[in-house]
Specification:
The protein has helices spanning 2-8, 14-30, 59-68, 85-95, 140-164, 171-175, 186-200, 204-215, 223-233, 252-261, 276-279, 281-290, 311-325, 356-376, 383-388, 392-405, 423-428; strands at 42-46, 73-79, 99-108, 125-131, 265-270, 295-298, 330-332. The chain is of the alpha/beta class. The protein folds into 3 domains: 1-32; 35-136 and 252-428, TIM Barrel, CATH 3.20.20.140; 144-233, no CATH class.
Length: 431
């Protein structure tokens, strides 16, 4: 029964998802399901099926699984859309999970126009984020992000289709149905090409020969094949790839402005420190800070190999040192937008264990911000916060404590506070 309800959580029908989650919550209340106490693991960077989740997870499904796993804080992030926001925050409230919502996109950074930052092979282009969104109210910038992303995907498909013949995709019939609200990505195209090839070439040997001809290899179905399709046709050197530059994506400053107007936190995204742009850490932080960035996102798995002390690991510790120098909350997670991605990072490894306190501190800060911003508009970068705290360190201490001590069941105790409220008065509301 539980397996059936959990499967229903991934339905494209929002009513069915809600019914399944409520049914699971009733089983928790009746004692049929026992959930663990929250621990110290966090994942604040999980994509949902509103952009691309390799396991098909809806916002409700991820919230439920995160609560079952005992995560201290869980967060979602989708490319170019906030479609999952309301569902995820409500699901977190229902299951007793501390939550936050982020947005990811690509931007252009003029100061780094000749240097690769975190988008391989693309000078000046950077993956960039806003963290701690609390409302999905449509903003012209967000509307344009969605439209531009959709147009890029359609144009890429046209180029790749010409190369993949006789395996060709119909965007509306083969791609759009793979995501609930039409926000198709490169990864959806890869999954669709794998499916279409199986239809065009039902014979496995003939299909393998086709992939060998088109891609130079014929790995088994699934992650290896989809990643190869993406690498060979959609990334640099592929038939579908067009080198981006100034004008291809919004400026980082413009995205940061939108994030700030939305009450969220502009967030610098870190890859692994090996590209020229990321080697200039101080300059990169200064450039981002100048337009409002105040947090750092890291995907730990890209920064170390268990048991290996190499340059990437040194870079990881160096960027965390830089973040702490600037008092940036650190956001971490595992993405889950590629088959094989972990549900949660291996925080017990020798490489990550010393960093867990910083990761947990960042997660609590973002959760505290998210609730206070949603309930009263008094978030981390609000005018109230800038007035109430003399230093960023003091602000971090308050939001960390708020996020650590607040329980999801009483988030509405912070509703309706005004800018006259003091930090101590706010904390009394949750005890």
């Amino acid at each position: 029964m539980n397996d059936s309800l959990e499967q229903q959580l991934d339905s494209y029908n929002p009513v069915e998802r809600q019914q399944a989650l409520l049914a699971l919550c009733r089983q928790v209340e009746s004692g049929k399901i026992t959930l663990p106490a929250p621990g110290t693991d966090v994942n604040l960077h999980a994509h949902t099926f509103f952009s691309y989740n390799a396991y098909g997870y809806s916002p409700s499904k991820y919230a439920w699984l995160a609560r079952k796993a005992g995560l201290a804080v869980a967060g979602i992030v989708d490319f170019d859309v906030l479609d999952a926001l309301e569902e995820f925050l409500e699901a977190g409230r229902l299951v007793g999970l501390k939550t936050c919502v982020s947005l990811e996109s690509r931007v252009f950074v003029p100061e780094f126009a000749t240097r690769v930052i975190n988008s391989p092979g693309e000078p000046g282009v950077a993956y960039h984020m806003g963290v701690g969104f609390t409302s999905a109210v449509q903003h012209p910038f967000l509307t344009e992000m969605r439209a531009s992303a959709g147009q890029r995907t359609r144009e890429m498909l046209a180029r790749v289709n010409a190369f993949m013949r006789p395996v060709e995709l119909d965007y509306e019939k083969d791609v759009v149905p793979l995501t609930p609200k039409g926000n198709a990505t490169e990864r959806h195209l890869c999954a669709a090409f794998e499916r279409k090839a199986a239809q065009v070439f039902p014979d496995a040997a003939r299909r393998a020969a086709y992939w060998q001809e088109k891609l130079g290899d014929s790995p088994a179905a699934g992650a290896k094949l989809q990643n190869l399709i993406r690498a060979k046709t959609m990334k640099k050197g592929g038939v579908g790839y067009v080198q981006p530059g100034k004008g291809s994506f919004p400026l980082m400053a413009d995205m940061n402005r939108f994030v700030l107007q939305s009450g969220a936190i502009p967030t610098l995204a870190w890859l692994d420190g090996t590209a020229d742009g990321e080697k200039s850490r101080e300059e990169l932080f200064a450039t981002a800070i100048a337009t409002g960035a105040a947090a750092l996102n890291i995907i730990p798995d890209r920064n170390y190999t268990p048991g290996v002390k190499d340059q990437k690991l040194k870079n990881l510790y160096a960027v965390i040192e830089m973040a702490e120098k600037h008092h940036f909350p650190i956001v971490v997670g595992t993405e889950m937008n590629s088959p094989g991605n972990k549900f949660v990072d291996s925080f017990g490894t020798a490489e990550l264990a010393p960093l867990v306190p910083a990761f947990l501190r960042g997660a609590h800060i973002i959760y505290g911000h998210s609730v206070l911003q949603r309930q009263s508009g008094l978030g981390y970068l609000s005018p109230w916060a800038k007035e109430a705290f003399a230093t960023v360190m003091a602000r971090n201490e308050f939001f960390e404590r708020l996020g650590r001590e607040l329980k999801p069941a009483i988030e509405d105790h912070l509703r309706g506070l005004t800018a006259k409220a003091t930090p101590d008065q706010i904390l009394t509301k949750i005890h």
